[in-house]
Each structure stands twice: as C-alpha cells, then as structure tokens.
Amino acid sequence: MNYRVKEIMTRNPITYNVPSSVSDVIRVLIKNNVTGIPLVGRDGKYAGVITRRDIFYNPNETQTALVMRKANTVKEDDYVEEAAKEITIQGKRHLVVTNDNDEVTGILTPQNFLNIIQEKFGERKVKEVMTYNAFPIWEESPLSVALIAMKLSQIFSFPVLNAEAKFVGLITDRDIFDKVKLSSTEVLSEAGIADDEDPWSWEGIRNVFTYIIEKSNIRVPNMPVRDVMVKNPVVVYLSSTIGETVKLMSQGNYNQVPVLSGHGDIYGMLYDVELLKVFND
C-alpha cells in the first residue's frame, strides 16, 4: 500500500506569527510542550518553521525572522516516501504540510513514520541505516563540561563510558535540567522570558533548557555525569531488526537509542531521522 502524507501527519498543529520575538516563540514551545512549530505571516500563509534546535544555534538573536528556516513543505496528497526524503535532505525533525493556498494544515516528525517503517521495513537491520556520529563522554566529567560539549557539538545525547571505555549509561540535556533546583518562575525570570499569565510546564521548560542556560546566570550542580545519567538505558544492537528498534522507540517515545556491538561495546547512536532513509533505498 502506498501511503500519503494526510494519512500519517499531525493535523492542525500549533502555529505562531512572524514577525515576532524569539522569546515569544519560546513561550509557545514551553506552554504547549512542543519542540517546533510552523510560522505564518500576517496573511495567514506559511512563512517558515522554527524549532528549539534553531534557537539553540542562534542564542543571541532576538527576532524570529532571523532564526526561522524558510524550509520546503509537502502537500497532504504527497506520498510518504517524498516526505521522508525531504526530511532526510533537510536534516531536521519537523516538516510542515501545506495546502494549495500555502496554508499550514499539518506537521510531520520522524515519529509519524514509525508504524509504516515497522510494517514495511521491519526485517532490515540497524547496521544498514546508521550514519550519524556519536559523542561519548566519561562518567566522571562534570555536568558543566557535558553542557559545553553539547553546545559545541550540537549533539544533545551522549553515551557515557567508564575508565575502561565500557558503556555504562546515557545522558541528555534534559537529564541535566532535572538537577537544576529552581522553581519555574526563577528559571524563566533568569532567562528573561517569564510570564504571569499561565502556569508553565516543567516538561516544556526541559525542551529549551539549553537555551535558558545560555541566556541566564543559572549554574548546574557540581557533580559528575554518572550521578545524573540514565543507567541501563534501552539499547539496541547492530544485529537488531528495524522492527524491534521501532517498537522500543515508539513505546518509550525515544528520538534516539544507543547501539551496541555484539560484545556490548558502544558502537554509536541511532536517531529516528536516520530510519527515514529506508524509504529511499
């Protein structure tokens, strides 16, 4: 069966206006616990897309128009293979769907494709689709060093190794955020994006934590990575099937999983974006 975009897309996504300020966009991301949104102009038509990663890459820009991407879109009647190819080309996780009037009607992320991938390509092996680099970090590294490494590498999930170079865990920017002992009001005030109108979602704040740290005087605790990392995370192996992997990622809502060799050594990370390559092989 040839699926079309309209069968898998998330309909009526949250949008925001441009021109606007980046701080306004961050408020929308936090309050709705999303990591990216389409932007529309004064005429109500698609203007671009902005994600937390775009904001992380441009922490000193204040205007949305200077941070957003005027990325290509797809149509509801396009085949999912075309949409998967476009996400792969862009190298970003959010793809906007528009109609013939250039109005936003939906959005796609790799998660929208997982069921089809499991159905059509489930027997293929993980080692056939891995391409992205992994950035390992030592378990005794301070959290402040881990954050700097994330900022410089633009990779926000690290496999953690011990002194014998054995894989012992996983750490993400969101795990570090959980150790910041401040109220949501303090965190957002420090970053200059506080708002008294609505309660803030801690889950939403976690999504933009790296930006908040960049823009504020907040300091992370003086503790090693091993005290924060996820011990015994969900992993897959080079020999695992894509079907098995997709099932684990869907159940845990994971965007990435560590990949181990047959001997249990870290081989790399598998990201959901990489899985979309199966549509184009």
Automatic annotation (TrEMBL):
Stored InterPro entries: CBS_dom (IPR000644), CBS_dom_sf (IPR046342), Diverse_CBS-Domain (IPR051257)
Keywords: CBS domain
Keyword Cell wall biogenesis/degradation attached: no
Superkingdom in the source lineage: Archaea
Key word 4Fe-4S present: no
Residues in CBS domain copies: 9-66, 67-126, 130-187, 229-281
PANTHER family according to UniProt: CBS DOMAIN-CONTAINING PROTEIN, CBS DOMAIN-CONTAINING PROTEIN CBSX3, MITOCHONDRIAL
Name the record gives this protein: CBS domain-containing protein
Native organism: Acidiplasma aeolicum
